[in-house]
Amino acid sequence: MANLKVEIRESIKLNENSYDSYSKVTIKDIKEISKRTLTVPVTESVLMVMDNTNVGAGTFVEDDVRYIRITNKSTEFPLLLTFKNENNNEFMYKLDKESSYIYSGESDISGTSSGSGVINSIDASDSAITGVDSSYENMGDLVNITAMASGSQAQIDSGSAGSGSGAVRCDVELFIASV
Questions:
Q1: d(CA 111, CA 134)
Q2: Phi, psi values for residue 169, rounded to 5°
Q3: Are 147 and 82 in contact (CB under 8 A)?
Q4: Is 31-178 a CATH 2.60.120 domain?
Q5: CA dihedral for 103, 106, 110, 114, sign (positive or negative)
Q6: pTM over cut 0.90
Q7: Domain range summary for the chain, segments of one domain joined by +
């Protein structure tokens, strides 16, 4: 087992004033790391799948996942990420070029390693979300994350985007830490 240290540093000086920020968290008892780079076209591609018990290529146990980082390495195109829960609720996030998105699973409750990972970690609705209480009964387990490169409609229509001939693609780094 090992500890994963995640550090975020922001540094800017604007009008002779510094607005720096630093945040650090340690995620304990990590037993497995998955790090891979893949090329994502303008068609939807599965980045990862969650399961109750099974582990495999691109499949992770939802109880065990503590940290997910998705980095769009493209210098030209954004990446559309779709997060889906067990209730078929989805939300989409547009990740800009050369940017990262961090999705953290629950870990280290009261000094133990009994966190619930990505269980009951996501809800989505086309209207206001209400009624969330300490039981998280409306929240669902994260079941998968899909992605697709985002090009202009003109690029897609002209055939310079998409499978085969297209230039619209995003190299994506996926980093997952599990207990």
A1: 19
A2: -150, 155
A3: yes
A4: yes
A5: negative
A6: no
A7: 31-178
